[in-house]
């Protein structure tokens, strides 16, 4: 697809912005270990089919650290929106409906006549069905998780947070058509409304009942825990070196021989690794998921002639 591509370097990223300066560019900062990023990549692909005049770019946050640092990307997924080479908006988190709304609003340039290739407005029921299925768990609420605009929405957001539920949300106050349409579509007159895999679960009272009965854990998808993220990172390559810097700034051939993951990526990962492996400093070297140690340990292994066999996973 011509308007959906990957940026794998700073130069390529800058060229994409320059070449698409007259229209909207949407950049998805993602990570291979985060399942919600895969889900949002699918959403991007669908949006790219509908919005032919918008450029959609996927950029792996840890693989192009210069861009991630410049725009202060501290979590994934994160979306940045550019026009004329300048950042005009930002969206943090896996919120498919909000992403769709921003693409429609920012890509329209404030309205105007439809252009060739634009998709006509879809039927309301089709739109509601798409929104309900935009994520494995969808919360239709007043406001956003960061700024709920009613007590019921605030309570349900807190419950989902307390139980590590992974979800996307839609602000019904931003679209009266969706707000009224959902009441009829699902035969549920009040908000908030929660859907799992396209099926209505209910509102706040139902969610509270699920908590009390212990059924909530098996009803909703879970957020990937920090421990799971760390396990995925540590096992991303047979040899993993977590260090301060990258392949370009590593000055010795030994460092350049490894797959290097920058530990700047999030504060939680930096601190989590220290606790997970009970090793308080960096660099940290892992082979086949097992911690070898830091610089002093590697030096000792080299002096003892054991380094090569350790790197091969023989010890």
UniProtKB/TrEMBL annotation:
It is found in: Cytoplasm, Cytosol. The keyword Iron applies. Keywords: Cytoplasm, Iron, Iron-sulfur, Metal-binding, Repeat. Residues 1-108 form the Thioredoxin domain. Its main location: cytoplasm. Transmembrane segments: none annotated. InterPro entries: Glutaredoxin (IPR002109), GRX_PICOT-like (IPR033658), Monothiol_GRX-rel (IPR004480), Thioredoxin-like_sf (IPR036249), Thioredoxin_domain (IPR013766). Pfam families: Glutaredoxin, Thioredoxin. One of its GO terms (biological process) is intracellular iron ion homeostasis. The keyword Iron-sulfur applies. GO terms for cellular component: cytosol; nucleus. PANTHER family: GLUTAREDOXIN FAMILY MEMBER (PTHR10293), GLUTAREDOXIN-3 (PTHR10293:SF73). This is Glutaredoxin 3. It comes from Cyprinus carpio (Common carp).
């Amino acid at each position: 697809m011509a308007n959906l591509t990957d940026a794998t370097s700073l130069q390529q990223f800058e060229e994409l912005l320059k070449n698409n300066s007259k229209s909207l560019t949407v950049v998805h900062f993602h990570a291979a270990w985060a399942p919600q990023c895969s889900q949002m990549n699918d959403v991007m692909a669908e949006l790219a089919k509908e919005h032919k005049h918008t450029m959609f770019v996927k950029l792996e946050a840890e693989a192009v650290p210069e861009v991630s640092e410049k725009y202060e990307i501290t979590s994934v997924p994160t979306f940045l929106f550019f026009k004329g080479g300048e950042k005009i908006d930002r969206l943090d988190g896996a919120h498919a409906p909000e992403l769709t709304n921003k693409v429609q609003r920012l890509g329209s340039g404030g309205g105007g006549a439809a252009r060739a290739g634009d998709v006509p407005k879809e039927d309301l029921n089709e739109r509601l069905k798409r929104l309900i299925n935009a994520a494995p768990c969808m919360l239709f609420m007043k406001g956003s998780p960061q700024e709920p605009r009613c007590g019921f929405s605030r309570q349900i957001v807190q419950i989902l947070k307390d139980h590590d539920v992974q979800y996307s949300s839609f602000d019904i106050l931003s679209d009266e058509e969706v707000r009224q349409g959902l009441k009829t579509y699902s035969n549920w007159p009040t908000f908030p409304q929660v859907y799992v895999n396209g099926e209505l679960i209910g509102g706040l009272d139902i969610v509270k009942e699920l908590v009390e009965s212990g059924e909530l854990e098996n009803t909703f998808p879970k957020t990937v825990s920090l421990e799971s993220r760390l396990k995925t990172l540590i096992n991303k390559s047979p040899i993993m070196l977590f260090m301060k810097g990258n392949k370009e700034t590593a000055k010795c051939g030994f460092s350049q021989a490894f797959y290097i993951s920058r530990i700047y990526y999030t504060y939680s990962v930096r601190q989590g690794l220290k606790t997970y492996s009970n090793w308080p400093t960096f660099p940290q070297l892992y082979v086949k998921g097992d911690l070898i140690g830091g610089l002093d340990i590697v030096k000792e292994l080299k002096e003892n002639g054991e380094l090569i066999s350790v790197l091969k996973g023989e010890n």
